[in-house]
Design a protein that fits this description.
Layout lengths: L1 E6 L6 E2 L10 H15 L6 E6 L3 H14 L3 E3 L12 E2 L1 H4 L4 H9 L2 E2 L2 E2 L2 H21 L8 E6 L1 H12 L14 E6 L5 E8 L5
Parallel strand pairs: 1-8, 3-4, 3-8
Antiparallel strand pairs: 1-9, 2-5, 6-7, 9-10
Helix pairs in contact: 1-2, 5-6
């Protein structure tokens, strides 16, 4: 089967003591609409299932695609970003002047004043993605031709790709908003990265 790992559209930068969970900006809504049109138009074959992180920016992006495809949307909390529950979104990254420092900090489990466990995060993500794969495999016929889309976050995509690559660090790249990363999942544990950061639908 082919797995589409899709980052959400561009969200607002927000601060919220109750937990920052921003919606898409107008630009992000346009990105989500372009993604939905591409998926419905068959750019990535016939998508038969859509799964999303429950965080608002991913859910909103995924719902546009699910509506365009006429699919029910499934939510999985294991696909939430590492910043779940943090009180700010977006402002920390903009304060870095050297991208190498971003990756060093994230792989050390910190982002300015916030901290998390990168390996626990990666284990959670891998469990969620692999469950999507195994659920389709267990469904029976058509596994090899199946395409399933997961709408999630940049960190989630990083965590799963570094798992496939066997890298010690969990973070190494910054997927663009609504970019598509394609993974081939063969029976057993064979996972093959077909592409990273496809954005042709935004042109």
């Amino acid at each position: 089967m082919e797995l589409l790992l899709i980052r959400h559209g561009r969200p607002f930068h927000v601060d919220d003591p109750a937990g920052a969970d921003p919606q898409l900006t107008p630009e992000g809504e346009d990105q989500a609409a372009r993604l939905a049109k591409a998926l419905a138009g068959g750019r990535h074959g016939r998508v038969e299932r859509m799964v999303s992180s429950p965080m608002r920016r991913a859910h909103q992006t995924a719902q546009a695609g699910a509506d365009a495809l006429g699919l029910e949307l499934d939510l999985d909390p294991r696909l939430a970003e590492f910043d779940l529950g943090w009180t700010s979104y977006g402002t920390d990254l903009s304060s870095y002047t050297d991208r190498r420092e971003i990756w060093a900090d994230l792989n050390a489990g910190r982002l300015r004043d916030n901290s998390f466990d990168p390996e626990a995060f990666r284990r959670r993500v891998v469990a969620g993605v692999e469950e999507v794969i195994s659920a389709r495999r267990d469904a029976g016929d058509g596994y090899d031709e199946a395409t399933v889309a997961i709408v999630c976050h940049g960190g989630v995509i990083n965590a799963y790709l570094t798992h496939i690559l066997g890298l010690p660090q969990a973070f190494f790249t910054d997927p663009f908003y609504t970019s598509v990363t394609r993974v081939l999942a063969r029976p057993g544990d064979h996972r093959e990265i077909l592409s990273v950061n496809e954005v042709d639908h935004l042109r």
